[in-house]
Write a structure and sequence with these properties.
Elements (H helix, E strand, L loop, with lengths): L1 E11 L7 E12 L2 H4 L5 H19 L3 H14 L4 H13 L3 H11 L7 H13 L3 H14 L4 H13 L3 H14 L4 H13 L3 H13 L9 H21 L3 H14 L4 H13 L3 H14 L4 H12 L3 H15 L7 H20 L6
Length: 361
């Protein structure tokens, strides 16, 4: 018997707000065969497991993921070999942003769903959530082989390539889809990121024009998810204006984001970049201190703090630059040029300190 569970999908994303990036309606079929349940329990208990899984699916249909997960857990207490309950638990855990737990369930049953594109897709989502990007791409590719037209897979793959700094592959994946679906806000967001990375800001502005002309309005039933998507698009638009050296307009856009999420590190850092570009060091430092309080190891925050202090306090600048180098090595593909610049600057600061030392004869 097949039971189709329709649930809202939140992707990407990451970090922070990126981890709740995409909003999708996805329908996946859950097979209640003996091969899925693999129960050695009495028939009456097998029926109970089946009913609990079915109840969990119904909760998930209406976005009640905690209640859904509770039903699957109860099913696993009765039958800890139920592969369907483990599979569905993993999917719901992705919805809840509990990626590590989700990965654990998926690994346990990965050999039993070798032709299930939904399983591969959500396994990829879970791996992306724990920043295992290469592994995530492996599972997205498996999903794509079975369901090549699944736009969720295409968008997730493109986003992961962007996170890895591979804009060429990201564009190769998303561009054919975007050409046919120019009003897809998620594809629009990805394309604008790609163009901004390539410093093609004028093209990015054209892509985001629909969103800007609509005065940043997005229609949707789920207010929290609409807000998330709006924030990501606003940040991309702000980045575009910042790239065009229009910090005045960029700052207005970033301020809209910070009204919604006052401690969003990406927008705090973006605001600080514009403040530094317009010689507002004090304002920039206040934003960066807030960022540092939220994410003490954020490489961009550390890099910008080094820049902010370089002209006034070289000792502090060196401290933050050194911390940046430590953290950025883990994401070197995202900070390649900054690592080179900072390494050279730290070496110069070291040489300067040595020259200032007294010489004893």
């Amino acid at each position: 018997m097949n039971e189709c569970m329709v649930i809202r999908k939140f992707n990407f994303g990451g970090e922070m707000i990126i981890r709740t990036f995409f909003i999708f309606l996805s329908c996946f079929c859950i097979l209640f065969s003996t091969s899925c349940v693999t129960s050695k329990a009495p028939r009456s208990q097998t029926d109970v497991v089946f009913n609990l899984i079915e109840r969990g699916n119904k909760f998930a249909q209406v976005g009640k993921f905690y209640e859904s997960l509770e039903q699957y857990k109860r099913a696993l207490i009765i039958d800890n070999l139920s592969e369907t309950a483990k599979r569905n638990s993993g999917i719901v855990l992705v919805k809840l942003g509990r990626y590590q737990e989700s990965v654990k369930y998926f690994y346990e049953v990965r050999d039993s769903f070798s032709s299930d594109p939904e399983f591969f897709y959500f396994f990829g989502e879970a791996l992306r959530g724990v920043k295992a990007y290469h592994q995530a791409l492996d599972y997205y590719s498996k999903a794509k082989e079975i369901a090549p037209e699944d736009h969720r897979v295409l968008k997730s793959m493109a986003w992961v390539y962007l996170k890895m700094g591979n804009t060429k592959e990201a564009e190769k994946i998303i561009n054919p889809y975007f050409k046919k679906n120019k009003n897809d806000l998620q594809a629009m967001l990805i394309m604008s990121h790609i163009l901004n990375k390539r410093k093609k800001y004028s093209q990015s502005i054209k892509i985001l024009k629909t969103f800007e002309d609509a005065r940043f309005a997005i229609v949707g039933r789920d207010k929290a998810l609409v807000e998330t998507e709006k924030i990501l698009l606003l940040e991309s638009l702000g980045n575009t204006y910042e790239g065009l050296n229009n910090c005045k307009k960029a700052l207005k856009i970033y301020s809209l984001v910070l009204q919604l999420r006052p401690f969003l590190v990406t927008s705090l850092n973006a605001t600080a970049r514009c403040n530094l570009a317009t010689n507002q060091q004090g304002v920039a430092l206040s934003k960066l201190e807030r960022s540092l309080a939220v994410e003490p190891s954020n490489p961009e925050t550390l890099y910008l703090l080094g820049n902010a202090y370089l002209g006034s306090d070289r000792k502090r600048a060196k401290f933050y630059y050194s911390r940046f180098l430590e953290e950025a090595q883990r994401e070197s593909s995202s900070f390649t040029s900054e690592i080179l610049k900072v390494t050279e600057t730290v070496n110069q600061l070291n040489d300067s300190n040595q020259q200032n030392e007294p010489h004893f004869n």
